Structure formats: structure tokens, C-alpha cells
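Researcher: I'd like a structural prediction for the single chain below. Treat it as a standalone chain; there are no partners to consider.
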Amino acid sequence: MNQQRPYKRTEDRKNGRKSPEKGGQEPRREGQEPRREGVKSRPGGRKHPEKGGQEQRREGQEQRREGLKSRPGGRVQAGKEGRTFRKKDPEKEQTMRLNRYIASSGICSRRDADDLISAGVITVNGKVVKELGTKVNPGDVVRYNGERIKNERKVYVLLNKPRDYVTTMDDPKERKTVMQLVRNACSERIYPVGRLDRNSSGLLLFTNDGELAKKLTHPGYQKKKIYHVFLDKAVTEADMNKLAAGLTLEDGFIQPDAISYANNDDPSEVGLEIHSGRNRIVRRMFESLGYRVNKLDRVYFAGLTKKNLPRGKWRFLTPGEIRMLKMDSYK
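Model: Treating it as a single chain, here is the predicted structure.
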């Protein structure tokens, strides 16, 4: 292993000067005044201290800044000498890809928006657009099947749905809909995420965020839901074991993630955790074993609970809850 040669200190090195043999200055003699000529002649604005060197340096810096500001191409001074940035074009900043614009309106996700564009059902300023990657400006008129859509701020509303309300935007039978319960929540047009049937109650989320809605409802994402089930009679232990092992229904096999009695004093109340979003799946599971569901209440949905939310009331999601849903940071 090579060892580093020890550094040989000399009187000249102590004083920060090279030796004359290596092109340095002659050692300063005792009592000799420091040389000023070299300082005076240096480029870059450094002057003799007696002639206002500090003030002249500041003036030189200001002149250089002014020169940078006047350069063509939009480059301006950023606040520190030598650091610049390019002015942003407001028009370019406001343009948006068409699929993102459609998803922002809450109709669907970006991927589904690409399918709508390819199918020719999207028009921009009266012209059918089929080219993916098309960009739109804030003043453009975008329509889906003839109905105008708008890029709006994202809104997230959580409702504790009561019974006897239909989960739909409009009902041809003129029954009460969940939209009547949240009509005063915001000016944006929001949609229910998933559904609860008319006789079911509990948590129901509304939003105009198409990307998040698809993530929460698509079977591949497997979002956790917990139901409190009230039955017409006590559930036997044998049937509880059958439910835990899984059942084969007309549309395939189904198995809950967890099941237990919700009330130790009343075996007709069952708590059931499931990820499936198949239509009326909880009711059909119990009906296949000869039980009738008198009441079904969803108490947990994708990390959200009914805490401090009375029946028939709604609230906006907190920023933390929105981040939780988008980042899947919940159990």
C-alpha cells in the first residue's frame, strides 16, 4: 500500500505564497507595503478599496442584471446573479390534453376518455375529434354525445344514505333519489361512486373525479367494504361457517373476507367484510341460505366511516381523506 508523502511546510507555504522557483512572487521584505498594481489591473470590477471598490462592484452587478433582462427570448433575472429562468407562456400553461379534460369533468377516467375520442362521440368547437393527444384551450366547447362538458374543480362529498332513496341521477318512476340529498352541496355536477340499493343505508361517496371513481368501483382494485346485516332470524353457527367458506351463486363463487356476529346478544345481526362490488351480493348470499335481509347498512367504505355523520346528512372529505383515497393508504 502506497503511503502519502508528508507535506513539507516551508516559510513561503505558511504565508500562502509559492516559491520563486515555481513562478511565485518574491517573499515580502520586512516593512514592505503590499503591492496594489495587480489588484487595480484585475478584470471583473475589482478596484482599489480607497476608490469605492464595494460600491463599484454593486454597480457592475446591477448593470449585468439589466443586460440579462434585456436579452431576447424571454430570459429574465431570477434574483441571484447568473441564475435565470424563462418566462412561461400563459396560453401554453392553460392548454390541456382532451382526455384529461374529459376525465376532469367527472364523466370517466382518462383511459375511457381515449375510447370515447376514438369512437367519435366527442366534439370540440362543433368538430368531431378522433385523434388521441389533441389539446384544448380554456375557451373551447367540448361536447359528449351533444351535451357540453366542463373542466371543474374536484369535489368529494360523503353521504350517510337513508333507506327508501334510489342511487341514480334521475328516476323515471319519480322515486326519491340520493341526488336530492346532496343537491345543495356544491355547484359542480357530482356523481355517486358505486351504488346502494333502495332499501340499503350507509356510506355513499359522490365526486366529479372520474379517475378516482373508476379506482373505487373497478373490480380489479378490490376496495374494502363492511356491512352491518340485520336478518329475519338468528343465523346458525353452521351457516356462519358456510358463509365464511364461500358460496356458489348463479353468477359465480363468492367468499367474504371476514364474517362474525355483530351483537353477542342477538345472533340475527351479522358483520360482514367484503371486497366484491357485484349487484346485491350481500343480500343474495344470505337469501341462498334461506334468510331474508331486513336491513343492510354499509358502515365502512375504502377507509371512510360513518363517524359523526348522522343519517341523511353529508359532508366534504378532508384533504387527508382525499390523499388517502388517491394513494390507497388505507386497509
